[in-house]
Amino acid sequence: MKTKFSSLVKIKHSKMQESELELQKANARLKKAKEELQKSIQELNQLQLPINGNMQEFLAQRTLQEAQQKLIQKNEQWVEFEIKQVEYARQQFQKDMIEYEKFKYLEDEEIKKILKKLAIEESKQLDEVAIMTYKQKEAI
């Protein structure tokens, strides 16, 4: 049954679905960021300082470790950013869901009113038919 809220409900539902899709994408990006962070930490743990050798090798290895630590910091910032993005997407999804539920409720209430009105009209028509039938029997 179509009401004055039907088109709004349809729009709010599609907006809610878009928000849900965006939340899923944000969660996927967060998962990827966490994987990259874990991978960079694991790579740092695999680096070993040379036990013996010349100073050049020690400096090269230290440079590698510093670069890996910077990569870890970058990945930690990426994870923090993605956490904020997920939280924003979650809030947006909740807001859109609430809006959809509001208009869905209004539509349901409007349908109830229409059905109640139709039931009353049908009852009146049945009463009229009953009165007419009674009068016809009385006239006979």
Q: How would you explain this protein's 3D organization?
A:
The chain has helices spanning about 5-45, 55-140. α1 runs antiparallel to α2 (about 55-140). The two termini are about 45 Å apart. The protein has one domain. It is mainly alpha-helical. The radius of gyration is 34 Å and the shape is rod-shaped. The chain contains 2 helices and no strands.
Q: Strand count, sense and closure of the main sheet?
A: none
Helix content: over 70%
Rounded to an integer in angstroms, the radius of gyration calculated over CA atoms is 34 Å
- State the total count of DSSP E strands: 0
Classification by helices and strands? mainly alpha
- The domain tally reads 1
Shape: rod-shaped
Show the helix and strand layout.
Elements: H1 6-46, H2 55-139
Helix pairs in contact: 1-2
Describe the structure in brief.
The chain contains two helices and no strands. The model has no long low-confidence stretch (mean pLDDT 92). With 140 residues, the protein is an all-alpha fold.
